[in-house]
């Protein structure tokens, strides 16, 4: 089975304990290349400069990573090729990096590809390394010795662009960075700080849903379905409910509707049934909480607050209840008793 992640041997191991060679061949044309010399010795009929991704490389890497063996390991790209060869599609490199990061492994890149590597900067984090191979500082000399590699000037510029320090102060809720103002990393850091300010001053979807639920709880809601989403709300809260539905509908993918219940015997019976079911469910939850010794103090407090809220809101339904009024009032008394037990339990926790 093809296993592209391997342990370098002899002197190569000083660079990295693990490595992957993504491509067969390299077209940078370096006259001193040891990989080309070895290739030409064993495969004299094949052109080393005819670069191709190794067949099934991304799938093979993903398969080898699946066991979790390489989590937190740093893997080098590449030894016998460059991860960013010239004039070919290098998407296999990006896909290999994505597979490594998804598995929890880290990436160590060594390249002469210069600007071609920029595309993948957004995949790297503080656990990864990006390096360049530099054999001379003269662009003219490099043109003779490494004719199709990026120039030393370009490589050095790319390395500078890959270097930045981004600092998040959670206590002060500030983000700062250090980077070369002329580099691409400066632009990335500026965008990161801009997005941080957006995040800091706006609520995400989960926060908005929690906010809506908190507001809804003040309107004495009775769930129509056990999973929620549809509720009966007493007419006394008509104005507040209108504001809440308008708020929900203001979001691009949000919606909220307020539909008046028809004043009929059938509708009143439906409301009465749902109020009774809600009280029964809450009583069962309170009884279970009283018997469960593993509940945390915060969870007990949550159940107590919910019970108190429902007991307080019951008066908003008394005027329309008839057939099950005595039964529901008895259930309210039982819930009050359960709350007393829960409060004593929470005090002992």
Automatic annotation (TrEMBL):
Species: Desulfosporosinus metallidurans
PANTHER family: SLR0285 PROTEIN
Lineage per the UniProt record: Bacteria, Bacillati, Bacillota, Clostridia, Eubacteriales
Entry keyword Iron-sulfur: yes
Protein name, entry field: Radical SAM domain protein
Membrane-spanning residues: none
InterPro entries named among the record's database cross-references: DUF6744 (IPR046632), MJ0683-like (IPR040086), rSAM (IPR007197), rSAM_sf (IPR058240)
Keywords: Iron, Iron-sulfur, Metal-binding
GO terms of molecular function: catalytic activity; iron-sulfur cluster binding; metal ion binding
Stretch forming the signal peptide: none
Domain of life, per lineage: Bacteria
